[in-house]
Structures are given as structure tokens and as C-alpha cells.
Specification:
Blueprint (H helix, E strand, L loop, with lengths): L11 E2 L3 E4 L6 H8 L2 H4 L8 H18 L3 E6 L4 E9 L14 E6 L8 H16 L5 E5 L4 H9 L3 E8 L2 E8 L5
Antiparallel strand pairs: 1-2, 2-3, 3-4, 4-5, 6-8, 7-8
Helix pairs in contact: 1-3
Length: 181
């Protein structure tokens, strides 16, 4: 029997950002974003502080159990948590099943929208994913009305492939074909 435990998110640095494991001190910023009805409307809806804490705990757990997960995104300039991105294994009850593809996810604080941070973080995560999931397509699920996320996904080569529902809401499944050398 093989057991895979104890892994943590690696630290990745870009020009302006650090993608790193979550810390307990990230809770205030994380809860503020997920507690904001507008910011959280496309990621399952507004969360209480308690729910945000539990959602934050998913990140280190995923890294420990499956070897990939979500990074906290910190702005180098001031050390502030501004969002999160990475590859989830959310075991979603959705058709078609997403299990064949590593699922990318992202959310950023509204006050940093339009400053290029999401693109910089997603690019770094994709570069990591290409090394760790060679030959694999990536997927992302995005609400049809979430135009900024759709544009970001398309910028990185994600293609709209499926229209379905998730938790009784319409959702689009985007696939980013594997890059070949």
C-alpha cells in the first residue's frame, strides 16, 4: 500500500507575487473576499467567517492528500493576501465528470481586479501544472455571466467545450489542451 501524505504547496515567485501555502493569518482577507456577495457570487456564494475558515482549510488538505491544490496569492509589495489560484480536486458532482482533467480555479480580491495580478498568478500556476501534469489537459468551470474569468481562461488557451449545470445553476466547462513540446 502506498500512502501519500505530508506534502505542502511549493512557493512560486513572480515579478510581483508569491504563490504560497495558506497561513492562519490569511483568514481575515480570505473571509472578506468570500464574505462579499459580489466577489463570491461565482464561487458558490457568500460565506460566513466560519465557512471561509473551513474553505481555507481545503487548500492544505488537498496538497497533503493529492499532491496539488490551491495557493494563496500574496502581493510582494506589501505581503498582503490578494487571492488564490491553483489546481483543485473537488470531486464535483457534475456531468461530464472532471476527473480526467486537473481543474484550475481562481478568485481575487475586487480591489486588485484590472491590475494584471490574476493573469500573473494563473500563468505561474499553469507553468507549474505543465511540469507536474505533463500531457494533461486542464479544465475550469465558469459561470456564463462571469465574463472576466472567461476572458482570463481564453487568454491562457482554455476553450469552451461543455454547457451543463452545477448545483442547479448553468455552468460552462472550459478545457485547455495539453501543450506538446
Amino acid at each position: 500500500m502506498t500512502e501519500t501524505t505530508g506534502r505542502v504547496a511549493p512557493v512560486i515567485e513572480t515579478d510581483r507575487l508569491i504563490l504560497r501555502p495558506f497561513r492562519a493569518g490569511d483568514l481575515d482577507a480570505h473571509a472578506a473576499v468570500l464574505g462579499d456577495a459580489e466577489a463570491a457570487r461565482y464561487v458558490g456564494g457568500q460565506l460566513t467567517r466560519e465557512q471561509a475558515w473551513r474553505s481555507m482549510m481545503l487548500a492544505p488538505g488537498m496538497w497533503a492528500l493529492v499532491g496539488h491544490g490551491i495557493w494563496a496569492v500574496e502581493r510582494k509589495q506589501d505581503g498582503r493576501w490578494i487571492g488564490q489560484t491553483g489546481f483543485g480536486d473537488f470531486q464535483r458532482e457534475i456531468e461530464p465528470k472532471l476527473g480526467a482533467w486537473p481543474e484550475m480555479a481562481w478568485i481575487f480580491a475586487p480591489e486588485v481586479h484590472g491590475q494584471g495580478f490574476a493573469g500573473e498568478a494563473v500563468a505561474a500556476a499553469i507553468a507549474w501544472g505543465e511540469r507536474h501534469f505533463p500531457g494533461k489537459d486542464f479544465c475550469a468551470i465558469i459561470a456564463p455571466e462571469n465574463l472576466p474569468s472567461i476572458r482570463l481562461a481564453e487568454r491562457f488557451g482554455f476553450e469552451r467545450r461543455h454547457e451543463t449545470t452545477y448545483k442547479d445553476e448553468p455552468i460552462l466547462i472550459f478545457i485547455r489542451p495539453a501543450r506538446t513540446a
